[in-house]
Every structure is written in C-alpha cells, then in structure tokens.
C-alpha cells in the first residue's frame, strides 16, 4: 500500500527498558514525539507492567514501578511488577533470559503492554484528528538488527492481539530495524558534520537491551545504501544493572541476593530505578579525579534485603552500619564488561567496511547519553574516525527515523541481508558428492537451495529467484518451504541453526504435461518482512504472500 492510502504514520519504539511513539500526518510530514505519559513528562515511558494476583494488568509504564514504602503504608502484596520481557524474544538460552513470575508467558506480557500503549496512543491521536480510524494509520515498529526472522512473526501476533490491526496480516504494519531507523534520522544532521554524497557513516544504537550497528552510504537523491551487514548484541544498559546486582552478590552473598530477587522482585526494580540509575549509572563519566565514593545505605534504601544476609556477612555489615561504599573501581567494573562488548562491535563494523572509509560514528539510543560509554568509544576510535557524535535527544532518533521511513519507504535504496535464505528441494543424489546416508529410496536427496546469501546487497523490489518443477508427474500442487540460516554454505535443511520461516502452496494446474510445469519462485527483501512470489509459467497464475513466520 502507498503512503497515500494512509492519513497518519505512527512509529512505535517498543524498547527493552523504555518505550514511546511518534507520529506525523501524511500531508505535512511534521513529526511529533509524544512526551506526556501517565505519571511523568518524558519522550518515553518505562516498559513495565503491574499485575494483580489474577494476572490482570492494572498499570503500565512509569506508574507500574513499585513506589518506595513508607513506615505507615507497606507496598501492596498484590502488586506484581514485570519488566524486561522483550528480551525473551532474543536468541539466548533460557537461563540467560530475564526473570518472569511463574504463570506469566512473555507473549502475554508483550501483548498486555502493547494493548495499554495502543489505547493511550489512540486516545492521543483522536484528540488531534477525531475522525481518524485504525485502517488509515500506518504503524512502523522498530526491531533489533539481530532478531531472527521468526521473531517478527511473534511480534506481529502480539501487535494484532493488542489491537493495532484489524487483520493479522494487514498492510498497515511495517517493520524497520532500529539502526536503520536511526540512520534515516541521522541523514538530517550529516550537513552539520560536513558529510556529502558518497560518504559513509556508522550508527551505533545503544539501547536498554540491545546495541545495534549499521554502516550506511549517503546516495544521490537523499537515499541510503548499506555498506555492511547490520550487527548487534545484548549489551545495552540493563546489563550494567546486572553487573551491579552481581556486585551486591559478591558483598552480601549470591544466595541472599537471589532469594531476595525471587521474593521481592519489585524492590529490586526500586533499587535499580531509584538508586543505581540516578545516583550511579546515569552520571558516571569515568573521571577518577572528580569521582567521589557513593554510599549505598541498605538500611535506608532497601532494608528488606538485610534479612536475607547470612550470619557471617551480617556481622561485617553491622560493623559497616549496613553501608557499602562504591569506589571508582567498583563502578568501572560494572561498566567495563558491557562497554568492551560495544567497542568490539564497533571495531568489527569498521573492519567489515574494508576500503570504504567511515567518516562518522553517530551514537544514539538512551545508553548513548552516558558520558563514560561515549568517552570510551571516542578514546578508542578517534584516530580512525574523524567525527564521533551524539545527536540531540539520542533517545528519540529511532522514533523520528521510523516516522520518516513510514512517510517515504524509498529513502532506503538497499540493504545487506543478515541471513541466507532458500528453499527445500528434492534433487537426484550424486555419488561421491552427497552423503550416502541421506539418499532416499527413489534415488533423490533433500537439500537446501540458497536463493539469497547473507551479506548480499538487496535493493527494493529486487527478486532472488529460481525455476522449479514438480517432484512427481501427477502432482497437482507444489509446496515451497522457505528456510533461513546464518551460514553461507549450508547444504541441508536440518543443519543446526536452520529456521523454517514460512511455506507457500502453488497450484500446478495442467496434469498431462508431467514434470514439464515450471514455477518461478522468488523472494524480495524490500521491507523488513520477506515477501514471496510464485509464477506458474504455464497457466500465468501469480501467487504472492507475506510469510506467516513460525511462532515457536
């Protein structure tokens, strides 16, 4: 669908720690970032839910954070705060995924949060345009660069259940990778740094959960090309929070901290959001000469933690009056494992660019506001890259870029594929080439036929295709099973890391021609969703679909 079919474009940044939305009418292209959420004034609100004992979401965003207990009024025992549920979409092992209370599924949490946001967002939009309806809104959701293909299918399902779409596979929904959205925004500030057509720049999007990178080239007619594959990893600001919790475990006992976390997760949130972030993490600049030790007064800030400490450590803590002094080395030890990971990502992106010189690095996202992270990146790469800058309000760059993409999708001229895509085929088994154990009873073998390989530059509407014929002479239809892998040289459909992302059935029509019934099957990657087309060359029938990504 063309942007002319919509009245309003809305960008949704569903983040690990904070979420927000921005919008623009298609007639004036004036982007507004919403900045007034329940409970506070900010460009984003916390990605947090509060449930009652029946698992009904009763609060979302900032109000869902557990408030500090007073001496007269204890926090409600019925309050169940939940956060970081977006990380359950990441490709990590179960043990590394954030805590979720027993009885709550991560898809339910995502849907509940998006539903609360949808109602609030729609109310905001109707105040501006009272006659606006859902079918006239194009939604652009930004997603991490490293998400597996199936993850967008899971998110689409949650978005649909949350009320954003009238149909699950509606064309009203578009996806864009977070670093690409940030890169589109950064086009508006290239002149400030004297970059011109032909110059390349890197975007390092440092969020709460993920850090995503992309290197882009500014092309004529204000378009973007992609120099390298988008990359990313789980090394956002929440992993500094995790290091703080590990630090407490070393001082108070890991068992004590773990039991406290399991029984009082809301108070752990309080500890992070009301003490660690504002008093330690957010302002840390890494300057030893100006750093002053920070007191963590457990008795004042989190007295419930005291009862979990064993006798041996309790004696020492009582001597210290339940105060832990955070020294400079303590704080750097919380940051450095995360910062070093980000620096490796940047270095790998620069190396992957080869001879294409990177003229600038733009650091965006909420974590890019941290002075220590920025100073470490500048210190490491200032000799190689002339400009290393943080745009104004880096936390809103993805939202603004996603709106611009929704208004003009042609702004992205090409993308590098981050997966290898192909289909399952049955071909004749070849002696000396194919494993004997894979030979089928009829002398054939099942293989993976790659249509588009990882790292390939794909322009909008470019088709990656092959010609295929039926396996049996009497077939009435062909089923195309589409798969994806990170490997460049995958041969078989059951190799580790191979993911099925969708299926498509094509009617063959005429039977009396046997195997001579060619089908041209193609994939296009113009959008952040994959589209498939099959053309029956005999009947001239054309089949098109967006894939129903498998949702586990």
UniProtKB/TrEMBL annotation:
SUPFAM superfamilies: Actin-like ATPase domain (SSF53067). InterPro entries: ATPase_NBD. It comes from the Eukaryota. The lineage of its organism: Eukaryota, Fungi, Fungi incertae sedis, Mucoromycota, Glomeromycotina. This is 8607_t:CDS:1. PANTHER family: ALPHA KINASE/ELONGATION FACTOR 2 KINASE (PTHR14187), HEAT SHOCK 70 KDA PROTEIN 12A (PTHR14187:SF5). It comes from Ambispora gerdemannii.
């Amino acid at each position: 669908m063309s942007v002319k079919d919509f009245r309003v474009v809305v960008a949704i940044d569903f983040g690990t720690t904070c979420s927000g939305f921005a919008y623009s009418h298609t007639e004036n292209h004036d982007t507004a970032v919403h900045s007034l959420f329940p409970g506070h004034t900010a460009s984003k609100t916390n990605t947090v839910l509060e449930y009652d004992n029946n698992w009904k979401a009763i609060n979302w965003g900032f109000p869902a954070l557990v408030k500090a207990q007073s001496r007269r009024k204890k926090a409600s025992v019925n309050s169940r705060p939940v956060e970081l549920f977006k990380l359950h979409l990441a490709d990590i092992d179960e043990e590394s995924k954030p805590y979720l209370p027993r009885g709550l599924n991560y898809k339910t949490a995502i849907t509940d949060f998006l539903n609360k946001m949808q109602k609030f967002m729609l109310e905001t939009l109707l105040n501006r345009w009272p006659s606006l309806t859902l079918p006239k809104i194009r939604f652009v959701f930004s997603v991490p660069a490293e998400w597996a293909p199936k993850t967008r299918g899971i998110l689409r399902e949650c978005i649909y259940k949350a009320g954003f779409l009238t149909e699950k596979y509606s064309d009203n929904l578009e996806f864009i990778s977070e670093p690409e959205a940030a890169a589109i925004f950064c086009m508006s500030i290239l002149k400030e740094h004297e970059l011109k057509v032909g110059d390349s720049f890197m975007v390092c999007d440092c969020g709460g959960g993920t850090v995503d990178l992309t290197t882009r080239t500014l092309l004529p007619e204000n378009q973007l090309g992609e120099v390298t594959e988008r990359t990313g990893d789980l090394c956002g600001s929440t992993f500094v929070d995790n290091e703080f919790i590990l630090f407490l475990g070393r001082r108070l006992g890991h068992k004590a901290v773990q039991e406290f976390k399991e029984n009082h997760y809301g108070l752990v949130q309080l500890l992070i959001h009301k003490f660690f972030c504002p008093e330690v993490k957010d302002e840390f600049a890494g300057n030893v000469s100006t750093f002053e030790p920070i007191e963590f007064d457990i008795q004042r800030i989190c007295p419930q933690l005291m009862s979990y400490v064993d006798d041996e450590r309790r004696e020492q803590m009582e001597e210290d009056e339940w105060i832990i002094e955070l020294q400079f080395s303590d704080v750097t030890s919380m940051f450095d494992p995360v910062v070093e990971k980000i620096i490796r990502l940047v270095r790998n992106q620069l190396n992957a660019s080869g001879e294409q010189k990177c003229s600038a690095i733009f650091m965006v996202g909420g974590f890019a506001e941290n002075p220590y992270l920025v100073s470490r990146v500048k210190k490491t790469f200032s000799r190689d890259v002339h400009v290393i800058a943080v745009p104004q309000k880096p936390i809103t760059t993805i939202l603004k870029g996603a709106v611009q993409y929704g208004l003009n999708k042609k702004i992205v001229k090409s993308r590098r594929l981050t997966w290898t895509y192909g289909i399952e085929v049955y071909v004749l088994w070849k002696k000396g080439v194919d494993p004997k154990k894979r030979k089928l009873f009829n002398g054939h073998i099942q293989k993976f036929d790659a249509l588009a390989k990882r790292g390939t530059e794909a322009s909008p509407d470019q088709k990656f295709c092959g010609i295929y014929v039926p396996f049996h002479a009497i077939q009435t239809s062909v089923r195309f099973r589409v798969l994806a892998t990170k490997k460049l040289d995958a041969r078989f459909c059951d190799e580790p890391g191979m993911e099925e992302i969708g299926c498509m059935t094509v009617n063959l029509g005429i039977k009396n021609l046997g195997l001579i019934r060619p089908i041209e099957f193609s994939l296009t990657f113009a959008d952040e969703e994959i589209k498939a087309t099959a053309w029956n060359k005999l009947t001239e029938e054309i089949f098109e679909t967006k894939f129903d990504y498998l949702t586990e």
